[in-house]
Structures are given as structure tokens and as C-alpha cells.
Amino acid sequence: MFTGTYTALITPFRDGNVDAQGLTDLVERQIQAGVDGICPVGTTGESPTVTVEEHINIIKICVQASRKKIKVVPGTGANSTAEAILLTQAAERAGADGSLQVAPYYNKPSQEGLFQHFQAIASSTSLPIMLYSIPGRCGIEIAVDTVARLARECKNIVSIKEAGGSADRVSQMRQVMPEKFTVLSGDDSLTLPFMAVGARGVVSVVSNLIPFEIVQMVEAFSAGKADVAKELHEKYYPLFKNMFVETNPVPVKYAMAQMGLALEEYRLPLVPASEANKKIIFETIRKCGLMEAPAQGVRKPLKGEPVPMRKN
């Protein structure tokens, strides 16, 4: 069962290559913050522009760095069923704790096609699977009836990351899904609204920046301390919104560079944010107090690198 806070981890690059040491440092920071798990090589991890070899290596690095202290649930989905199976089986061999399976994109299969796609993947692995419905990226959603059918017929499909922007869908799923099947928010700004109607946590982009605070918010709400959770939501709401002023993960990577967590390096077709949006992002992290903490808890930066990360 997947519950709590999972970080949709960025992939740090250095001179065009995956920064293995930087990635290890980011995983350690998540461990120290108390997250339940990480989801590397998803949308936020720029999975469309890493090679299959890099994709598998990123998973291996994260599994090794996690030391079984947190769960590693990598994105291993694809719009090709065969490729998704290949990546999922590689993740299982690497020691991952689960698999995040996005809806096939671009080819827009029918709901029957979606069912058979996910069923084939589930039957190829013993890993627990978290579905990922994000129609804004994929052009289709995984219908509630399809999710219910998959949960009923595939014992290792146990969760869904819901990024369709609708609390109503969460309510609909809770009406038809078994209690053990968990819904996690796929949008930081909707974590509390979704949890209010039955979601059990979040796969968060913003927890790349403030993992400890997102953990606090989710745990507070789960413990019945809605006022504490609401206070944290309101404090960081500008961060939740402004990390998406441009295509994810461009804003969060820029913010992380300002905080000394990673270099601001992308792969085409992603490019740096506009100067206007950089100002918005910088002012947001400054006003949220993310530029004020002392530098500690990270390897010494090399010449030309940003200042070290803040310690939560």
C-alpha cells in the first residue's frame, strides 16, 4: 500500500550527463526529511529525454542510495506496452519497491486498450503498481470504471496517482474501490482537498524543495490535525502554484539551483524559464523563507556551482 508523501524526484544533470553524486545527495535529503518514498524518472525526472540505459541506471542509483529507508517507486510506464514491461522488469531486478505507470500518451488507446496495457504490465512483474492518470499530459484519463476493473483483476495494482484536477474523481473512486486501494494526489495544491475526500497522500513536486514540510502537512491531516495542515497549505500555497508557471520540471529545477540543490540544467526540448518567470519563482522561494537557512548537509560545491542546500 502506498500512503503518505512521495517525492517526484528531479533528475540532476551535469554537462549533459546524469549527475550520479548529485542524485545520491537528493535521495539522502529526502530520507532525512522523512518522506515515505520517491518516484524517480517520472515527468519531473525528465524521463522522456533519458535513454533506456540512463533510465535503468537512475533507478539503480536511487535504490542504492535509499538503503531501504524509503520506498523507491520509479516511473516505468511508456506508450509502448513492451517498453513499459522492459523498464518495469529492470526496476524489479534493481530492487525497486514498486512501479509508477503513466497512461500511454500520444497514441490515445481506448479504455479497453488501457485495461489490456496495464494488465499486461501487471502480469509481467510482482512489483506493486501505482497507476498515473494525468490527462493534461497524456490526452486521456484512466476512467474510474477502468481503475476499478484493474484493481479487481490485477492484485498488484494497488494505487493511483490522480492528477486530473478533480476531487470528484477521488470521491468516485472511493465509492467503488476497496479500502486497501489508495489514491494519492498528483497536484501539490490539491493535496488537502483530495485528502478531505479520501486520498491518502501525495506524489509531490514541491517536496523536492520542502520535503519535511510536505511530510508535516500530510501527517497532520492524517492525524486529524486539519488546522495544522491547513496552516502549512496556506503558507506554501504560492509555492504550490508558482512551481508550475512553466512546464514542470523547469520551475522546480530553477528553484533548486537557487537553493543549491542541483544545477539548472535541462535536456532539449526543455529550456530555462523566461526571465519574467524566473523572477516570480525566485520571489516565491524567497518569501517562503527557502533562501535563509544555513548551508549544511551536502557535499562541498565545485567552482561555479550554487550554494549548498538548506537543512530541514
CATH topology: TIM Barrel
CATH superfamily: Aldolase class I
Domain tally: 1
Helix-strand category: alpha/beta
Strand content: 5-15%
CATH class: Alpha Beta
Strand order of the largest sheet: 5-4-1-10
Instruction: Describe the sheet with the most strands.
Output: 4 strands, parallel
**Mean pLDDT value:** 93
Radius of gyration: 18 Å
Q: Write the CATH architecture name.
A: Alpha-Beta Barrel
Number of strands: 10
**H/E element sequence:** EEEHEHEHEHEHHEHEHEHHHH
* Unreliable spans: 293-312
Q: Give the number of helices.
A: 12
**What global shape is seen?**
globular
Q: What distance lies between the first and last C-alpha atoms, to the nearest angstrom?
A: 27 Å
> In which range does the helix fraction lie?
40-55%
What does this structure look like?
This protein is α/β, with parallel strands linked by helices. It has a single domain (4-223), classed as TIM Barrel (Alpha-Beta Barrel). The chain has twelve helices and ten strands. The chain has helices at residues 20-33, 52-66, 81-94, 111-123, 135-138, 144-153, 167-176, 191-196, 211-222, 226-242, 250-259, 275-287, and strands at 4-7, 13-14, 17-18, 37-38, 71-72, 99-102, 129-133, 157-162, 182-185, 201-204. A hairpin with a 2-residue loop joins β2 (13-14) and β3. α1 (20-33) packs parallel to α9 (211-222) and α2 (52-66) packs parallel to α3. The chain is globular and about 50 Å long.
